[in-house]
Design a protein that fits this description.
about 280 residues; alpha+beta; Arc Repressor Mutant, subunit A; Endonuclease, Chain A; 7-stranded mixed sheet; 10 strands; elongated
Length: about 280
């Protein structure tokens, strides 16, 4: 069974070198043209490949016109290749160990370095905001407090993950009165309330805000010039900030009214508009 050139390539030969060596093995001596034909490689490459094999001690030249070439014995050639491979692997191993010795101190020192703001994360892409919010909800241990106002990353009627959280943990949300202007969104809010969310409504909220377990806050950052058309949120893991914002949340919560109170207040206005 003919030897596979890939097996020789594993020992460090190029594909062309492996094919030429195997072609030489099949003849006592061969011209360059004969080797190119037997090996199936381009004629313009054959002399370079033969010269490389001769230089590596895997083939020899026989004087004459034309010059002929012969393979050294496979036992000698393969042993020579394995020795060269071992030397290469030894060199790589020494180099790898040297790199480890050089990099380990830097790695250890790097573990002690910390960006003073690495607890702050800014999100601008809507998909990234949704993904991060889902991650934060998955880590809730006790409660989630929310100021909900436009623009919405996920409308209430589409927020399936939020419903799961509402069933498992204490969830309190403050909405703006305008949340009930859209029937679909209003139905979503009503469903959250039915699932156990405590909801309050105020005329206007200062910003979008989420507080989780008095440890993590997510809040909207509006461009003071452009207004709130762009959705940009910051996530901060900071207990003191979370505690301070919870005080603000409680103050706004205390001023809010329930969904039933808001609907009762809006009903006369709706009736008057219909007259």
């Amino acid at each position: 069974m003919a030897a596979d050139p890939d097996r020789l390539a594993e020992l460090g030969l190029t594909t062309y070198e492996a094919k030429v060596y195997l072609a030489l093995v099949r003849r006592e001596v061969s011209s360059a043209a004969d080797v190119a034909r037997l090996a199936g490689i381009p004629r313009q490459r054959i002399y370079d490949v033969l010269a490389s094999l001769v230089q590596r001690g895997l083939a020899s030249e026989r004087p004459g016109k034309p010059t002929r070439y012969a393979a050294v014995s496979p036992a000698f050639a393969i042993e020579r290749l394995m020795i060269a491979r071992r030397e290469e692997l030894d060199r790589i191993e020494r180099s790898g160990k040297d790199l480890i010795d050089r990099l380990e101190p830097e790695f250890a020192a790097g573990r002690k370095e910390r960006d003073p703001l690495d607890y702050i994360e800014v999100l601008r892409d809507r998909a990234a905001i949704n993904e991060r919010f889902v991650e934060l909800q998955a880590g809730i241990q006790q409660e989630i407090l929310v100021f909900t106002k436009p623009p919405y990353a996920t409308p209430a009627q589409e927020n399936v993950e939020g419903l799961v959280v509402t069933r498992r943990f204490r969830a309190r949300s403050v909405y703006e009165y305008s949340a009930l202007d859209d029937p679909a969104f209003a139905a979503g809010v009503r469903r959250f309330v039915e699932e156990g969310e405590e909801a309050r409504f105020v005329e206007e909220l200062p910003l979008k805000l989420v507080i989780i377990d008095e440890a993590i806050v997510m809040f909207g950052m509006e461009d003071p010039v452009a207004g709130r058309s762009d959705l940009t949120l910051a996530v901060v893991e900071h207990h003191a900030l979370a505690a301070l914002l919870k005080i603000a949340f409680e103050a706004v919560w205390a001023q809010g009214i329930t969904i039933d109170e808001l609907e009762a207040r809006l009903a006369p206005a709706a009736g008057a508009a219909g007259r």
